Structure formats: C-alpha cells, structure tokens
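Researcher: Please predict.
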Amino acid sequence: MTAPDAAELRRRTRDLLAAHPPATTDRTDFLKARFDAGLAWVHYPAGLGGVDAPRSLQPVVDAELAAAGAPDNDPRRIGIGLGMAAPTILGYGTDEQKRRFLRPLWVGEEVWCQLFSEPGAGSDLAALGTRAVRDGEDWVVDGQKVWTSSAHLARWAILIARTDPDRPKHLGISYFICDMTDPGVEVRPLRQITGEAEFNEVFLTGVRIPDSRRLGPVGEGWKVARTTLMNERVSIGGARIPREGGMIGPVARTWRERPELRTHDLHQRLLTLWVEAEVARLTGTRLRQQLVAGQPGPEGSGMKLAFARLNQEISGLEVELLGEEGLLYSDWTMRRPELVDFTGRDAGYRYLRSKGNSIEGGTSEVLLNIVAERVLGLPVEPRNDKDVAWKDLAR
C-alpha cells in the first residue's frame, strides 16, 4: 500500500474538520477523532495515531489544523509522554500496550512522568538501586527516584529498576510502566531555587507491577532506556521554535524597547548570543529532518548541550541588561505547576530556572562524553566497573 502524500493528507485533514468542526466539537472529542484519523503522528502505524506517512509531512497536517483554529493537545503539559514514553512504547511495546497507552497519552487524558534518576544514580544512571523482584505474574518494586517532573500530576510512569544484581550494572536492569495511583507510590515535592516544585521525589514501597507492563525483555532495560534518553534530549534541545523564540526573545525585546539600558559591551554580547541562538535553532531544524530517516542519535546530546549553555548565558545577560530591575524576583510562592516553563515569568525566574538546564535530561558533563565518543570518535573513557556485578560495586 502506497504511503499518503501531502495532497492526500490535506484531504484527510479537511475531511476531519468537516466531520468535527472545531468551533462546535468538544476539545477532547476532536483530539480523539484526530488520533483515530491517523493525523496525530502521521509517521506512526495505522491504528496508532498515524497512517505510515513520511514524518516530514506532519507540518502539512498541522498547518491545515492551525488555519482552521483546531485545538492542540497542549504538548508542553504532556511533553514527557509525547517526547519520551510514546517513542519507547512504539519501539518496544506489545500490540496490546500500544493500543492501551498511545491514544490517551496523545490526547492528554493521561499524563506521564519518568522514574529514572535516583539519589545515588543521577549522572551514572546505570548504577541505580531500585529493585524489582519477580513474584508470580507481578514484579514487586522498592526504591526511591528523584528529580521527577510532573509526578504530582502523572497517571503513568516509565520506570527502570534492577532485576538482577548479579550482573554488571548495565545488564541487570528492566523497564516497566508504573501506575502512579497504585498503593506504595508516594510523591513528595522538591522545592527548587525558583520557589516552585515542578520536580518531585518518588518513593516506591512494595509496588506491584504486572509483568504485562514490562517493556522489552527482562534484563534489557538499559537498551530500552537509551531510546527514551535519546528522544528526551532531542525533545529538550531540538524543539521547534520560531526565530527569536526561546530565551533570546525577551532579551531582544527589552533591548529594542529600552534604549536607555544599552551599552557597547552588552550590545556585542547580545549580537554574539543572538547569532548562536539562531545557529542552534537552524541546527535543530536540520536534526528534525534527519529524524525523518531513522532514530535519534547522539546529535541530540549536542543540541541539548547547546540549549543549556545558551539559556544560562542569555538569562545572565538579561539580568545584567536590566540592572537593578534584574535583581527583583516577583514571586517565590511555593506551588506545583502543571508544566515545565523554561522561559516564563520574569528575568529573575528565567535566570534561576536555567541553572537546571545543564542537569536535567543528562548532565552537560555526561553529554560531553557522549559527543566525544560517539560523534568525534575519541577514545572511550576507561571504565573499570563495566564487567563487575552490580552487587559487588562500591557504594
């Protein structure tokens, strides 16, 4: 069967709009109809939100829907599900898992979070100690996770846990889907330097997960997790933004609107960062084009590195540009937001929030290693724990 072309996708989109006019159709009902029509992810298989079309044709559908005023699925609120859980489920899930999880995930009926990092396994994620022990048709999970965005909102979580402590750390891990409403799951807020608690720590005590919610073979969770991590870095560092989108936008607006703040030094720094932000934006566009041909690779790590550095340098420049105003902080109220907002609120918020960009989604130090080894082909860093059983590692 021939894959739909751009004209066919336009026709299908217009049929969807005719059958479900956005102005008179309930938002959720419209999104469900869009998914069922194969216009959610056009490159996904038929029946799973797509029509087996080239990924490059998704903008054709999006443009038609935007012109008609159709609702989107609030991608910032469900970014972990869209950017990390969905491609992992598509790659490793059973047919039953794909049918159960992908539709409510894309529609936004079910929010997802990521249970990967631990207090003793952040940068060295494969050293994680959360245990999953087989008990009949279930796995019993005990441990602690940390830096979990949206855990206070999530219904489901992607979880990696150690299932065989007698094997080396990368080989004794399995990958699961965890129901965040199950007994034994406790979510506690972690208040950040910004004042809010978008992150959480999650305690798992005797949580029972059916084996039917395992993704991939037992003991191959690290392989599955790498798919998640590569997609995570692309979703953070390679997001589609317009020119002067992201962190550079507010600084450029302030520069134009407040000429009394300008100095020669700040002008030179702003020009340099504006150019670098535009280069990063165009590189992200090229990266997304490369994704059309296959799976995300280590290039996403390079984009995420640039994203973190630029956000921190640009937000620092913004605070300096504003002078005394830049020292103000409008609201340090403790709250638990529904989405991660890297660029929202005021200059003080942007400056503080950007400090986390070089930690979340893989620390910059780890990503530098990935780029060095997998992109530049430099010698692999010596690792003397690679063939040692996890239980024998010093902790």
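Model: Residues 264-291 form the longest helix (28 residues).
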